[in-house]
Amino acid sequence: QVQLQESGGGSVQAGGSLRLSCAALTYTDNSNCMGWFRQAPGKEREGVAVMNRYGSVAYGDSVKGRFTISRDVVKNNLYLQMNDLRPEDTAMYYCAIARVWPGCLNPRADAYWGQGTQVTVSS
After folding, report:
1. More confident call, 59 vs 54
2. Is 38 in contact with 107 (CB distance < 8 Å)?
3. Contact 116, 5 (CB under 8 A)
4. pLDDT tens across 63-85, in order?
């Protein structure tokens, strides 16, 4: 059983930055899809940024050029640096891990999910 714990959310004004962290509290070496997803009220959960163990990354169209995903292999942590935040980025952000890379940017029922961290961007 994989346990994930997000942190780093908060409230920020438009144009500001936040850095989210996800601590994988258990062993995740069998996972080849790890990343960040978000869900705003009344909307479906969507992929924000994902990466695999080989360093391949993929971003949602709305965050390209503004968000950067990274990983600390030693600490088994995943990060999301969010710059130039916009009010439309307001959502609950979730860290997730799944086994396979194809389709990683799509939210998956077989993934392990954290509890989420709230990001609120005011105009």
Report:
1. 59
2. no
3. no
4. 999 999 999 988 889 999 999 99
More confident site: 89 or 55: 89
DSSP H helices, 1-123, are none
Q: How far is CA 60 from CA 29, 37, 68, in A?
A: 25, 9, 11
Closest CA to 97 of 85, 110, 79: 110
Q: Is 39 exposed, middle or buried (0-12, 13-18, 19+ CB in 10 A)?
A: middle
The conformation of residue 29, written as its DSSP 8-state character, comes to T
Compute how many other C-beta atoms are within 10 angstroms of the C-beta atom of residue 109.
6
Q: 10-13 and 117-122 as β-strands: parallel, antiparallel, unpaired?
A: parallel
Q: How far apart are CA 82 and CA 67, in angstroms?
A: 4
Asked whether the predicted pLDDT for residue 1 surpasses 80, the reply is no
Indicate the average pLDDT of the chain: 93
Give the C-alpha separation, 77 to 24, whole Å. 6
